[in-house]
Amino acid sequence: MTEESERARRSECESEFESEPTTEIDVPESHPRYQSLLTRHRIEHGVEAGITSKQGLIAQGRGEAFDYLLGEETIPSADAAERAAAAQLLLADHPVLSVNGNVAALVPDELAELADAVDAALEVNLFNRTEARMEAIADHLRAHGAEDVKGLTADARIPGLEHERGKVDADGIYEADVVLVPLEDGDRAEALGEMDKAEIVIDLNPASRSPRVASIPIVDNVIRAVPNITAHARELADADSRTLERIVDEFDADEALEAAEERIRSGEF
Ligand code: ATP
Predict the structure, then answer these.
(1) How many CB atoms lie within 10 A of CB 51?
(2) Lowest mean pLDDT among 8-17, 36-45, 90-99
(3) Nearest Cα to 90, choosing from 66, 114, 108?
(4) Which InterPro entries match (predicted)?
(5) Which of the two ends of the chain, N or C, has the fewest CB atoms closer than 10 A to its terminal CB?
(6) Does residue 204 have its Cβ closer than 6 Å to ligand 1?
(7) DSSP code of residue 164
(8) Structure pTM?
């Protein structure tokens, strides 16, 4: 498909996407699989609208399996990580929230709210970068209330990554002192971690490389994690920097990963 026909197809789907609220599915909220069905519905629409890649569907499937094993809830260690993430973002001089196609489809409103709560920029950052998809995601985020959306300039590189995958904005992820990278691929998470940044990763698989290289790994579904970080940030909005630093220092990344693994191995069906 040419870039032009992809754009045309996307514009058709995008208007359908925008006119149909993504929260609408033909299933009552009381249905035991409501959250899971809603998530699938959003990802499916994301693919149709040219926001999410086909590989994103596979990532979604992997995530669902881990979420099932975690009991589809925010476990206490993940809540503590989300609080530490909120404190770290509030302490930052230049926080950036990285957005890929899955995250844009799943939590666009929630990302805009978090960006507002911690005064961060959003940056579209794709593993399989195409200009059409970059623009589709940026438009989609703006339509959901995001004000500062970066990623399209791509005038800097993350050292250690090949050309396309290393592209970032000089005044965005490149300069950031704190980055939130939900569902990041392992190589890029590692390269970002080597850039002297505090890195917050959201990933349902505690054995995946990305949470393992993060300073704050959050083993939770982005659907629950992002609004919970925002809730913590609002609650901590008036805290002084010593309190925020203490919350970050007291958080132990290894313990959080172990607690998630323990829940997965010992959880009941
Ligand atoms: P790595 O290179 O870090 O080992 P991977 O190969 O395991 O990563 P992918 O196959 O790209 O990673 O899958 C994406 C990751 O995103 C998986 O670890 C999956 O658990 C996670 N994931 C998928 N959907 C969600 C979601 N909704 N919330 C949080 N994590 C998710």
Answers:
(1) 28
(2) 8-17
(3) 114
(4) PPS/PS, PPS/PS_sf
(5) C
(6) yes
(7) G
(8) 0.91
The letter for the amino acid at 41 is H
- Tens digits of residue pLDDT in 126-145: 988 899 999 999 999 999 99
What own/partner pairs with CB < 8 Å and gap ≥ 24 does 208-212 have? 210/181, 210/183, 210/184, 210/185, 210/186, 211/257, 212/257
179 DSSP β-pair partners: 96, 199
Beta carbons within 8 Å of 38's beta carbon, 6+ residues apart = 23, 25, 27
Q: Report d(CA 106, CA 37) in Å as an integer.
A: 12
- Binding positions for ATP are 40, 62, 203-205, 209-210, 221-222
Instruction: Report pLDDT digits (tens) over 23-47.
Output: 467 888 888 888 888 899 999 999 9
Contact 218, 82 (CB under 8 A): yes
